[in-house]
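User: Second chain of the day. Same drill as before.
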Amino acid sequence: MIWAARSIEDYANRTAATIPGWRSMNGRQTGAPPKLSAGLVTIAGQDRPPLRSVAGAVAVADIEPKSRDVPAQLGWHLPYGITNGLSETELKEVIIHMAFYAGWPKAVSAMNVAKRVFGE
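Assistant: Same format as last time:
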């Protein structure tokens, strides 16, 4: 297997220490990869695959309560982004990009927090 060059010097030592662990797991992941593969192939071959899997439902159930804390945390993180050299425009661009992953309602909420933090 080919590993990417260590481009972030701060992480070089940690990455170097982690690679042997990754190599030792190659092909020996926990669980049952053949069963997972067979299940995914079965689902993909259905005329109407389920919109969510059980695993997805469990993940969403765990994530939803935590996501309610994000606006409060964002109000704390945005000023630190500025302190660490990001511009207000760059931070807003991250929020817009996030919309495609977290959903538009959460992105709009985050943008409202940003406007409040930046005094707009």
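Residues 71 and 110 are 6 Å apart (CA to CA).

User: Great, on to the next one.
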